Amino acid sequence: MLVEIAIGDAYGAGFEFCGREKITAHNTLAAYVEHELGLKAGRYTDDTQMSIANAEVLLATSHAGSDDFADAYVRCYRRDRRLGYAKGFQALMDQCENGAMLRQRIRPDSKRNGAAMRAVPLGLIADKQHVMALASEQAIVTHATSEGVLSSQAVALMAHVLLYEKARLDDLPDLVAHETGFALRRDWQAEVECDAIQTVHAVSTALLRNRSMSALLCDCVNFGGDVDSVAAIAMGLASISREYVADTPQVLMDSLEDGAYGRSYLRRLDEALAERFPVLASASSRPLADRSQLTSTLDVCK
């Protein structure tokens, strides 16, 4: 789960709000690309770091609240400061030593997609109402708006029903609507702003119209805009779906960063999550694609 989130995030980060010509030329899955603002190729951003924080909270306690999430966000950032956060939020995080300081200083009135981008791991919780409550608790730390909370709940709920109800992808909009009243779109076409609701619609559209990880990753980037968040969420969800072919190119696996909190750490964290939540182990045990039978990544991305 977390490895796939990081791959989606790191790959999408190279194309975040870039020109269409860059997407056309380089969205081939042949390699990670560097972002013009200085983010190196193969480096993940805040989407993954905050998903790691949420995962660590799940492993640490079964009674998490918003303060636990706030502490985790600051802790993960302070031990591994990295680019990719919004400038204002990063400046705030640089000033904070713990979650209490973050909560004292932040104005959590954002309608952007920060709460949704880190919500996939919350679906591991077995009780659906607990999932909804935790999705709200983690959202209100930074995005205490109806859009922020709803987007977080929609993402966490999609992960939950894929894991525990073995939901079909085509049924996700109805399942989310039943629990939240929110209608996921299947037809998003526009560039994705850094907006909670737009992001969830783009994730839903890409997730429902693809069935292979490689095609999904290309599709997410092709939207344009805040594509690292779209790709991070969608790849995390696809990794736990029985309907998705696990054909992420090996080059993206191998060239994902591997520092102190890189791919090796993410794999260990995934293993710890699978031990704590066995449903993840069963979701991750589906066979890999027979790569000799797959179309080339260049064809997938056309």
Describe the structure.
This protein has 302 residues and is mainly α. It has one domain (2-300): ADP-ribosylglycohydrolase fold, CATH 1.10.4080. It is 58% helix and 0% strand. It has helices at residues 2-13, 20-26, 46-60, 66-79, 87-95, 99-105, 114-117, 128-140, 146-164, 172-180, 196-209, 213-222, 227-238, 250-254, 263-276, 278-283, 297-300. Helix 8 packs antiparallel against helix 9. The longest helix is centred in the middle third of the chain and has 19 residues, at 146-164. 53% of the residues are buried. The model is unreliable at 290-298 (pLDDT under 50).
Question: Helical stretch count?
Answer: 17
Series of secondary-structure elements, N-terminal to C-terminal: HHHHHHHHHHHHHHHHH
Radius of gyration over alpha carbons?
17 Å
Principal-axes geometry comes out as globular
Number of strands: 0
Residue-averaged pLDDT, rounded? 94
- Poorly predicted runs are 290-298
Largest sheet: none
According to CATH, the fold-level topology is: ADP-ribosylglycohydrolase fold
Q: Beta fraction of the residues?
A: under 5%
For the record, the CATH class is: Mainly Alpha
Keywords:
mainly alpha, 58% helix, 302 residues
Write the layout of secondary structure elements.
Elements (H helix, E strand, L loop, with lengths): L1 H12 L6 H7 L19 H15 L5 H14 L7 H9 L3 H7 L8 H4 L10 H13 L5 H19 L7 H9 L15 H14 L3 H10 L4 H12 L11 H5 L8 H14 L1 H6 L13 H4 L2
Helix pairs in contact: 1-3, 1-13, 3-4, 3-15, 4-6, 8-9, 9-10, 9-11, 11-13, 12-13
